Amino acid sequence: MKRLHVIKMKKMLENASRMIAANEPYLTEVDTAIGDGDHGTGMKRGFSALYKMLERQEFYEWDTLCGAAGIELVKSMGGASGVIFGTLFIGGIDRLPHESSCSLTEIADYFMEGEKAIERRGKAKAGQKTMLDALLPAVEALKKGADTGMEIEDAFFYAYNAALKGAEDSKGMESKVGRSKNFRESVLGLPDPGAISTSLIFKAFYEELVSR
User: Fold this and answer.
1) What is the pTM of this model?
2) Can you tell me the distance from the alpha carbon of 50 to that of 167, in angstroms, rounded to the nearest whole number?
3) What are the C-alpha distances in Å from 158 to residues 120, 150, 154?
4) CATH of the domain at 88
């Protein structure tokens, strides 16, 4: 697949919404250990609202779809997670075409700009035990896939696996930002909840891409 239709991207977002909701207990469990315990419930609330919005509305252009998704997450999730995960879908919106299909290069640039926007907004970077530890490797994998002429499905396979590894690697990091920094060394050995959520989103994207 060389171009991804907006209808398929909508299904990918719906699948991500289902996956986040299904994993709420695990996300809550992890966040209770290293944070204030509300990450799972907040993510489920936001992505459940996103799913309902996607069910109600039709979208014909990529930028319209992704912009609406980001706004819905900010509006419904609330708190820092709402802003951060909303920024993932809004931060690079000017890289998307106002068209029904999108190339891998455009998709990679879009998510890369979203990652940069999160860095700026959160004053954070990869290596500080945040969702960026999963997101940056994922978007770098998408970019590499675009630069080497990969099929979109293959690029998202590598992006998901990079995000999964990033979430796993976050176990060995000491938190530098956010509420979990108050736990200092006690968070070692535990993954970052936001990184887990990010890996779940990319897992859902990939699984929907290869579904028939």
Assistant:
1) 0.93
2) 24
3) 25, 10, 6
4) 1.25.40.340
